[in-house]
Write a structure and sequence with these properties.
Keywords: Signal. The protein has 79 residues and is an alpha+beta fold. Helix content is 27%, strand content 10%. It has two helices and two strands, in the order H-H-E-E. Strands 1-2 form a two-stranded antiparallel ribbon. Strand 1 and strand 2 form a beta hairpin. The N and C termini lie far apart (75 Å). 1% of the residues are buried.
Amino acid sequence: MKFSTALIALTSAVAFLASPTASESEVHLRVHLDKGICYTSCPSGQYCPNEEYPHKCRGPKSGECFNPATGAFQKGCSA
């Protein structure tokens, strides 16, 4: 009786592991269409900030500094 129970459990485990799940048989692609990242090459001293439309190069306005980590201008410059 115990042998047949173990055999059924083993057969069930093999069948479960042999069948592919959705994550193994499908490929998911994430495409961001928000167009929030600017890929424009700018001249020295100018930047193309993310999230500003239309994407164009500009220098900092009075009291602004460009933060390359966020890709945006910020008020004031911190060391």
